[in-house]
Amino acid sequence: MPDERPPEPILHADLDAFYASVEMLKDPSLAGKPVIVGGVGGRGVVSSASYEARGFGVRSAMPTVRARRLCPDGVFVPPDFEAYQAHSNRFREVLLAHTPFVEPISLDEAFLDVGGATMLFGEPRAIAARIRAEVEREVGVTCSVGVAPTKFVAKLASDHCKPNGMLVVPAEGVLGFLEPLPVGRLWGVGEKTGEVLSRLAVRTIGDLAATPEPILARLLGEQHARHLTQLAHGVDDRHVVPYEPPKSVGHVETFEVDLDDDEILLRELLALSGKVASRLRADGYRARTVTMKVRLATFTTLTRSKTSTDPTDVGADLYHTVAELYRALPGERRRVRLLGVQASGLVSAGAEQLALLRGERWGDVERAVDRIEHRFGRGAAMPASLLDRSRRDRPI
Ligand SMILES: [Mg+2]
Q1: 225 and 257 fall within a common domain
Q2: Is 257 found in the same domain as 198?
Q3: CA 23 / ligand 1 centre spacing (Å)
Q4: Are residues 302 and 376 in the same domain?
Q5: 391 falls in which pLDDT band (50, 70, 90)?
Q6: What is the pLDDT of residue 357?
Q7: Which of 103, 109, 352, 366 is an active site residue?
Q8: Which residues contact 76 (CB under 8 A, 6 or more apart)?
Q9: Mean pLDDT of the chain
Q10: Of 82, 103, 118, which residue constitutes the final position of a domain?
Q11: Which of 7, 66, 342, 362 has an alpha carbon within 20 to 30 A of 75's alpha carbon?
């Protein structure tokens, strides 16, 4: 078993045609069809295209109107970010089960440093294979993984082996792998730099590596030239910066006038609990501990918390605890200037979110509320007691 840091410790894992693949999971009749996810309005833009649609020349960031011309029989679907977020949370969980050194780049992409995970899971190649199998099983979407000594080579490697592939670029093979690739594939080569390079007849990364740095520096500036030359030689010393899960999620409300009516204060706590719960669900966490903060008109702050063995992401549960804490406060009438609800002791909830999304516990009211609010804006749906308040506030 390897006991020291392997020469190729960096993985880049990338879900294949992520949004389009999730749409196919939601509606299996779409499998094998050219699926295009994006804004369906006149100014809409493609955000993801299945590989079948890519066969027609459809690409991300292309205007939907153009995609329709290229692929008139394509299935055009508006994005469903709740579903993508839930699948992404589960993807993150699978990666984190292999190493804490996971740096997410977007919902469907992450770097991993598995240099310290080899004792447990074998060499990086074996870890990549495990991750690919587990992601497909647990998320339902295939992923491609590049394995390399550095971040940018790992990223180029996963691009190279898509879809549903794996490519290991060994340390001694980096220059050979980079050489034939178009220079535009390097980070930091945009349109402008690309033009300058093409004037120098630099088309591939190999061409760039063969160009003396002082010549590049004259045209691109010293720093940029240095950076590109290093990349062209396979040098990239950026580390994987691990994702730090949040320690807590909270909301506070400061009132314009001090409140002293318990009923109104409890309603505010209900609203805060709902906000906290909906943040927890969006980020894929459940909380064990709920903390309530009450700042009195005298500026004394009372903080009370309660920890449960059963973590939750449901607003009604949070509120139940918070209301209990509030009612247990000493004294009678109090004038309150600020209320806060905070959830901590967070545990990941991605697997559970997916189960829900797949209808395994259907009819969850608060998730339905999330969907409604996503579509119609915050406040479009609210608990009855809040509805009651908004009615009361309306002038008669
Ligand atoms: Mg992707």
Answers
A1: no
A2: no
A3: 14
A4: yes
A5: very low
A6: 77
A7: 109
A8: 36, 38, 40, 64, 67, 68
A9: 89
A10: 82
A11: 362
